[in-house]
Structure formats: structure tokens, C-alpha cells
Amino acid sequence: MPAKIYTDRDADLNFLKKKTVAVIGFGSQGHAHALNLKESGVKVIVGLYPGSKSIAVAKSRGFKVDPTSEAVAKADVIFLAVPDMKIPAVFQKDVLPALKPGKTLLFSHGFAIHFKTIRPPKGVNVIMVAPKGPGHIVRRMYLEGKGVPALIAVQNDATGDAKRIALAWAKGIGGTRAGVIQTSFKEETETDLFGEQTVLCGGASALVLAGYETLVEAGYQPEMAYFECLHELKLIVDMINESGIAGMRFSISETAKYGDVTVGPKIINARVKAEMKKTLKRIQSGQFAREWVNEHRSGLKNYRRLLHAGAKHPIEKVGERLRATMPWMKKRRIKGVQAAY
After folding, report:
1. Among this protein's residues, is 114 annotated catalytic?
2. How does the average pLDDT of the chain come out, rounded?
3. Which of 56, 82, 232, 307 gives 341 a disulfide partner, CB atoms 3.0 to 4.6 angstroms apart?
4. 183 pLDDT more than 50
5. What is the DSSP string of 70-118?
6. What CA–CA distance (Å, rounded) separates 317 from 1?
């Protein structure tokens, strides 16, 4: 049975306008939710730790900024917009002591709740509003009068109106303009991690690198390998995103179609699918979460080593040189990680 899609008519923004909301963190999702809600007529305050680089940014956008514990004490709805691995410390130190019964704790990802890195008290609502897009797109679509599809979930309904709050929040950030689907913290967390690891990030990047290396090792020019295995990937993904896999196949040549349907299944074959199933089981069992928590606690040495090695791959130098010749492409030199708290 198809999932019900909630739209603007299913959500009452006035319900949220009667409350004070606190956005804890002002990174990618935090800044987008805060700005969109504010411009939707909701009273928004921002909570940050003293000395945070985000304080000046939030104030420059017109927000009142309080220390996190004070923001939590003042708010009816608290959005923990900080990275998964930082949530436990922020929650224990600054959120839990001020989290009185009847308040609502909101997340944009279910990791901390599903894997129990934090345990909210029974007297508070625990909900999720998860836009299916990065914060800058959530913000841009809102400004254009559109929206990014979103997921909502209710883990604990202490007050009897948790779903109404989630829908109102989704409307305030523009999600109901595009459509909202109800899920669970479990389903959102496990499918999100699976998609990131096997297809969207891990799978795509590993496939690109393997293709590039195969061509270069066979004696082809690195520039040719870059164009065929990385540059043109966006063109294909855009077509799939806009019209599905069948729509993409309609747009490409017959030769490309034949190669697609006959060779693709040999590359992404039963062995790859078996590895995907193993990955899903690791996620479902909590093994990945435990591994990631332990990596973070041990100082992220392996994580940083792997990222550094990836950044040094020859494809990065070739790509940087070729992108410099493309005047239509917005140039971005991304260094480090955007501050979220």
C-alpha cells in the first residue's frame, strides 16, 4: 500500500506559532530550519555553547542566541541540530537538566534515538522531521516558494499532539509544499545509513574510483578516464532524478542502453548485492553504530587517515585541473567541515 503523503492542508502552522522553538546548532540543517521557521512566523531562538563560531553568524541573521541550557529552558520545542556524535555530550550537559515534562525534542536524523546514545525522559515528546536534502537546498527551495520532501516520525507522544507538532514544523520549513511521509526512527535511520554506505556515497565513490583506475591502468589518459567515469556521472544522475531509470534510458543512445542492460548487472552482481545485505545487517544489529561511536571516542584516527588517503587520490588532481577549464561550473574548494555547533 503506498505511503500517505501529507501536504500543506494536513498541517496547521498556527499550532507551532503558539510555541517557542529552540534550534541547538547553526550548521547545515540548523540554519535552514531556523531561518525558514522564522520567516514562517514562528518564534525561534538559537542555542549555542559560549565561544561557538556560529554565534556571530546566527546573530547576523537576526536571531537571539542563548547558551544551550537557557535556550532549552525557554523553549517548548527543541531541535538538536548537532552532529550525531556530539549529541550525547550536548544532551547530558545542557539539554537533559532543562528538559521538563511536556516539552518536545526534535531530530532531523534518528541515529541518537534509535541506537540509544541518548535516553530522553518519558514525559517529553520525541519526534523527527528529516528533509530529504541538505540544508542549503532546504533553504533555497523555501525562498523560491517550493520545498524539499521530508519524513516525520514520532518515537514518543507524551502530550498527545506530537504528530501535529511534527507536521507543523515540516510545514514551517517548506516540507509540506513538496510532500511529507511518515516513517519511524528505526526505518529512517537504517535506510539512511544503508543508502549512504552502499549507493549514494560509499557505492558511488568506490565505483567511480574503480572505473577510473581500470582505464588508467590500461593505458588510457587520466583526463579521458575522469570524463568517462566521473564528470558525466552527473548528467546520468540528473536524468534519473528527473525521470527515473527508464526515463534516463529513453534519453541515451541505443548503444549506451544495450551496454547498460547487459553489462551493468555483471558489475553490480549477486556478489555485490550479498555484500549490501551484509552491510544492512551490520546497520540493523547496531554493529556499525558501535564501531562509529568507538572510532569517535578513540580520536577519529582511522577515519581521518582514510579521508586523507582519498583526498590524495590522483583523480582529485586531474579533476581540479579539468574543472578549472569549465566556466559554467561553480567552483568550490571545500576544506574542513562546516561548523554545526
Report:
1. no
2. 95
3. 82
4. yes
5. HHHHH-SEEEE-S-TTTHHHHIIIIIGGG--TT-EEEESS-HHHHTTSS
6. 48
